[in-house]
Amino acid sequence: MKHVIEDLGRRRGRARLGGGAARIDAQHAKGKLTARERLSILLDEGSFEEFDAFVEHRATEFGMAANKVPGDGVVTGWGTVNGRAVFVYAKDFTVLGGSLGEAHAGKITKVQDLALRNKAPIVGLFDAGGARIQEGVAALGGYAEVFQRNVLASGVIPQISLVMGPCAGGDVYSPAMTDFVFMVRGTSYMFVTGPDVVKTVTGETVTAEELGGADVHATRSSVADGAYDDDVTLLLQARRLIDFLPSSNVSGAPHWPTRDDPDREEPSLDTLAPENPNAPWDVKELVRKVADERDFFEIQEAHAKNVVVGFARIAGRPVGIVANQPAALAGVLDADASRKAARFVRFCDAFSLPLVTFVDVPGFLPGTAQEYGGLIKHGAKLLFAYAEATVPKVTVIARKAYGGAYDVMASKHLRGDVNYAWPTAQIAVMGAKGAVEILHRAELGDPGKIAARAKDYEARFMSPFVAAERGYVDDVIMPRETRRRVARALAMLEGKALANPWKKHDNIPL
Amino acid sequence: MFGKILVANRGEIACRILRTAKRMGIATVAVHSAADSDASHVATADEAVAIGPAPAAQSYLSIEAIVDACRRTGADAVHPGYGFLSERAAFARALAEAGVVFIGPNPGAIEAMGDKIASKRLARAAGVAVVPGRDEALEAVADARAVAAEIGYPVMIKASAGGGGKGMRVVRSEAGLAEAFERARSEAMSSFGDDRIFVEKFVVDPRHVEIQVIGDRHGNVVHLGERECSVQRRNQKVLEEAPSPLLDEATRAAMGAQAVALAKAVGYDSAGTVEFVAGQDRSFHFLEMNTRLQVEHPVTELVTGLDLVELMIRVAAGEPLPFGQGDVKLSGWAVESRVYAEDPRRGFLPSIGRLSTYRPPEAGRFGDATVRVDDGVVEGAEVTIHYDPMIAKLVTHAPTRAAAIDAQALALDGFALDGPACNLDFLAALMANARWRAGALSTGLIGEEFPDGFSGGAPAGETARETAAIAVVCDHVGNKRKRAIAGPMRAPRPVTFDAARSVRIGAAEFVARVAEDGDAFAVTFADGARLRVASDWWLGDPVWRGEIDGRPAAARVAPVENGLRIARGGHAADARVHSRAEAALAALMPAKAARRGASRLTTPMPGVLRRLDVKEGDALKAGDPFCVVEAMKMENVLRADRDGAVGRVLAKVGDTLAADAPIAEFA
């Protein structure tokens, strides 16, 4: 018995050391923390319970039998974030480069299974060299076991991937199937094939950072939902994200107490949307002034800035915010913006987070680039996502709601529960000039007549009242009272129960 | 008394005049340009009249439009405020012709004081000390030499048409006179096409002191003491106070008597200001007389207890002054800061935009201190390029100068303003400046005390410790709330946070423990120092207000990634609060070099280039606007994503641009 306890201590010590002091120093020298250090920040102090610290691989080929380290390159277990259970696995770059083999994969799938069974979020921390080539097809099998579980857990528990080092080849697909991907600038990258292969195949010379760095994925590809300057910043922001997320699709959102009055008036919102329909304004000011404590956790901030999505709380309860951003590209919906918002709407719907939508959209972006790029299909994704969503949907039309984009943005016709309009709202098929040029084509040669027609059109159609007369908006509200009206609508909708017809799954236009 | 007053101005001064008129039960009319239709002064007045487009020349400076507005609204008097038409005799005459009373001095007085040379002659005749020198233009160096010998060096050589420092030369001894004279003359010729040159005594280390006078239409004139406005930047006043720390009773009486004598000499019959340049030895000389209400009049109001606007209205209506010189008593000290939309960290460049946050400190009486906020904006108002960039005047009054400065410092720290850059941090730094606090002022103070400009970075010493205490208490409030989140595990032990927190502010690091202590917090630092911090701040409040060891304190707080940006006492810095374990790991993180943006300025959207703000060689800072692209019928302001110098410009106004089309290169 005594020798077992002694052995336990010795083994634990070895496991904690991972790849050894020299490799830990090398990790630090690169500006990276070790797997265990990362978990100590991500999880509440002292809350981490490790599993499988003694697991070793069973490979023997290529000299692997002599190269065994307890833990096998991944640290797994669970802990809490502000007291709520979270399952974790963190690749340990100091052990065999964090590469994935059969035993390593087994450790991951074990916590994946636990997370799904116990309905708690799972967070993966990536910093690894990919598949363990020495293990061959066993490693590939391991990947697929992980992928399969990612898919089964999708929409049941939140899955978050923190990419904090290399993440290439097979490693990239697990993060890609999770709900949120964060990356660290300068020290992390993600790509299917690296710069060497790119050079061989296409002749392009490109660095890892240029090919798959945090900013590339956060800005251009949209693979990443957030990019942060260092490990500590990213991990603390991940904790902040988790505070917004339900533990599972049946647990309900994690509300917390606030002293921010839900009835708070914001008189400055009355002047936020400029009267000149061509003048831009920043919808994030609206989001922050409606949200509790001005707190807004933006998702994909740098990508498709013409639509803003993210999490906020109203009266202490988390909600998903979707807002057209007139300060970028006039707030137009293009393929990227549609995809970005659609994915976010589906996340919120899957996890029962109410959707608050702020609308100022001049339409869909015209042009060959957009049409060839499949704007129809991408725009349809957002339309589909809003239409299938059964969570409470509260919509505020701040200014323009033109054409098909009006329909898309959580309109009454897509089962919007409470739809409000500001007095500045213009709900119409299109702007006055365009409409008049079609309606009165015969008078096009007479600028005076056309101008008069445009004025008539504006007076009649460019207001919230045509829609309000039909009940397409439930009320015209003063901007200053937006927070109170949205908070009350959400409170009223707390008991909302709506189910879509039974189906195996839908067929969203991917 | 008048039945209806029209205020021919905008912004804070219009609001301030309207307030007094309303209190007096007089109906009010505002006028506004197209840019100001939602402005505060419009909302404050009983009626408002649109008088033209945004440019002042076509609106607030249009005599015709304003006289017409009087006619349309039936206003029987006009208060011009300051600036705009306030010192135009023609405006006063046009109003008189229309049968409307001008609330200001008679046109004769405006004209007499409007001409620099004529006013100087009048002043000398009235027995006022003027700067020694010769009033007439000098022909040759020899003449200049004679005058300089008479008045003594140093002397100032000035172009008659001069302004903005051009054509002005200080000469310290005879040796440099000839060259300076010729240089000034040629500079004056090339800059102004007028080579007339004057010589006058140069006052070393000058101070700006002015006397407030008020007269009525019955020949009475009294003075209301002085104001000192020495703290200036490029001839623009920044801080004003009353009384002046320079003057003694005898000087005050002498200066006041001269100002009254001058006012009487020109038949002055309203509120006006006689400006003097004063030496450190309390010698003083007349500069000019401003025939209007001054921007800085509130400091006089706070030390005299008078309402200058009310007095102006009453004397304009023909009432005699209700008091004599002997009744004017100065009590306590008043300090005023001008809050400008300008960026002190970038050479005071003017800044425009929407005031997304605007929460001035609460006005009123707090103990024996008074806080007054004169502003003409509300949150959501727009600071535009069309008008003066002054957003507000913050005035404090207390029994002593030190107490008034302390109250001003506290009020500045509790002033939240976001959107355009503003000089609040700079003003707060001035309040902490030792020379300002000692009253050792001169018009060169800002340049001498901030020779390398203003940076306003992280605080040090005890200020840093107090800021750390604020940060750690804010962090505590946040952590405590996080513990109340719904859905925690029913674990055998509750979530705990390490009570010892590490606070990093700039280069300084503190370790402190927070314990709740009644309705306050006891903050104990690792070195044993303790601060008791009381505050009811809640997450999201842009201003932290409370007490530190019983002394009132305030700070602007704004969330940044993993921390708070705390601005207080002229220092603004990010405070990061961690557990000690986190701090140890955070210390391993490399400092990230500022991210390099793209090598070109591009448009992210297809559209038409409507405006181009840069040319080759311009220096750009990240965030600077460089062009306007119209897309989807919307004007989009594009901003540089990094610092750099502009190289080749690749597009011109009117070009149709594809997405990602280059507009200019970085050099």
List keywords for this structure.
heterodimer, A: 510 residues, alpha/beta, 2-enoyl-CoA Hydratase, Chain A, domain 1, eight-stranded mixed beta sheet, seven-stranded mixed beta sheet, 38% helix, 17% strand, B: 667 residues, alpha+beta, Rossmann fold, D-amino Acid Aminotransferase, Chain A, domain 1, Dna Ligase, domain 1, 6 domains, eight-stranded antiparallel beta barrel, 17 helices, 41 strands, globular
Question: Could you walk me through the main structural features you see in this protein, from its secondary elements to its overall organization?
Answer:
The complex is a heterodimer of chains A (510) and B (667). Chain A is α/β, with parallel strands linked by helices. In chain A, 38% of the residues lie in helices and 17% in strands. In chain A, strands 10, 11, 12, 13, 14, 15, 16 and 17 form an eight-stranded mixed sheet that branches. Chain A folds into two domains: 2-244, 2-enoyl-CoA Hydratase, Chain A, domain 1; 267-425 and 473-495, 2-enoyl-CoA Hydratase, Chain A, domain 1 (Alpha-Beta Complex). Chain A starts with a helix and ends in an 18-residue tail after the last helix. Chain B has six domains: 4-103, Rossmann fold, CATH 3.40.50; 106-113 and 206-331, D-amino Acid Aminotransferase, Chain A, domain 1; 133-201, Dna Ligase, domain 1, CATH 3.30.1490.20; 339-432, ATP-grasp fold, B domain (D-amino Acid Aminotransferase, Chain A, domain 1); 461-482 and 500-586, Glycoprotein, Type 4 Pilin, CATH 3.30.700.30; 600-666, OB fold (Dihydrolipoamide Acetyltransferase, E2P), CATH 2.40.50. In chain B, a hairpin with a 5-residue loop joins strand 14 and strand 15 (284-290). Chain B has 17 helices and 41 strands. The mean pLDDT of chain B is 91. In chain B, helix 4 packs antiparallel against helix 5, helix 7 (141-151) crosses helix 8 (177-192) and helix 12 packs antiparallel against helix 13. Chain B has an eight-stranded antiparallel β-barrel, surrounded by four helices. Helices cover 27% and strands 33% of the residues of chain B. Chain B is globular, with a radius of gyration of 28 Å. Chain B is an alpha+beta fold. Chains A and B meet through helix 3 and helix 10 of A and helix 17 and strand 38 of B.
